[in-house]
Amino acid sequence: MAELREHRPALRSPLLSWRLKAILPVAGVLLAGLLVFVWVTLSFERPERHAVILVATAGAVAICGVLLVALAVLIQRPLMELQREIAKLQAGDLSVRVHFAERSDEIGNLGRNFNEMVRQLRETREEVERLHRTQMSRAEHLATLGELAAGLAHEIRNPLAGIAGVIEIIGRDLPEGSPSREVLKDVQQEALHIKQILSELLDYARPRPPVCRGADLNATAEHAVALARQQVLSQPIQIELVKAADLPQVEHDIAQVQQVLLNLLLNAIQAISSAGRIQVRLESRDAFAAVTVSDTGRGIASEHLPNIFRPFFTTKGHGTGLGLSLARRIVEDHGGHIEVSSQPGAGSQFTVWLPLRKPAPAEATS
């Protein structure tokens, strides 16, 4: 802000220049008319005409004086008030307003426009401050979460590995026909579920920065689709991939983008209760590549849409609620963003926008 203020031109006082510009044309016309009048009057060489000349001269001077007073009241005062309020605005005071905005003329329009501009600036600053507080709170939350995740990794992973080993030994010792074997399978599945939750928590709390290189985004999406198709071999769900033939190389972290697309695909699979179709479409738009994952599932309720990217928010009844949050973070780390649209009963559509060239990190400014 200080640098911007240094480059702003200083406001010049309007006390002289505008008066001259306003009064000189009027004074010139009056003076020209007076000179013509004097020349005509003197040409008759009548002494009684001299008094008329004095009266005309006094009238011209009076007209100029009245005009100056009117201009001072109608224009000078609003200009000086506007100058004072602009100086306060430059100093950072966004509560300023001009009182001549109540006038019903062009000067009043100027005042109303100025007051409206200040109001919009004030609302914009309040919104920026609110977003800044939100980001700071989020950063503190993530820092705390990172410490918690590190502790969980140490306290849970080692005992979990021991439990898994004991379960495997017990399973080998049980007779082939023992019903306890099925129970052990369930225990193993739950242990894997705990491991998956812990891994997602660690990925979210301590994200790895993307290692981007130019690669074929079609191939990245194709690999994610192939993995998703393995999940629906026994289900009547079709997954269609529509590649973009004209898509240039896209700078991205292949593993991370595959993780994002696979997460969206698995969510789409879980949203389809019976038969359905999922489409993954790639296209190039200006300097971005777009990957759209659409499904014919149950959709997302409108009241849930604003919250689906929040950490730990889920409508599935199971899982951590970190998948979409982690996906958005990965995409934003690539310089892109995710858009979503959904209608209950009509499916959902997620679009991942990735820049063809990852933006360079902004340099820190003092």
Short account of what is shown:
This protein is α+β, with helices and mostly antiparallel strands and 366 residues long.
Q: Main β-sheet, in a few words?
A: 5 strands, mixed
SS strand fraction: 5-15%
Number of distinct beta strands: 7
Tally of DSSP helical segments: 8
Poorly predicted sequence stretches spanning 5 or more consecutive residues: 1-16
Count of separate structural domains: 3
Question: What is the C-alpha radius of gyration, as a whole number of Å?
Answer: 38 Å
The spatial strand order of the largest sheet comes to 2-4-5-7-6
User: What is the name of the CATH class of the largest domain?
Assistant: Alpha Beta
Distance between the termini: 12 Å
- The structure class reads alpha+beta
What's the overall geometry?
Answer: elongated
- Average pLDDT level: 78
Reported CATH architecture of the largest domain: 2-Layer Sandwich
What is the H/E string? Answer: HHHHHEHEEHEEHEE
Helical coverage, percent range: 55-70%
CATH topology-level fold name of the largest domain: Heat Shock Protein 90
Q: Write out the CATH superfamily name of the largest domain.
A: Histidine kinase-like ATPase, C-terminal domain
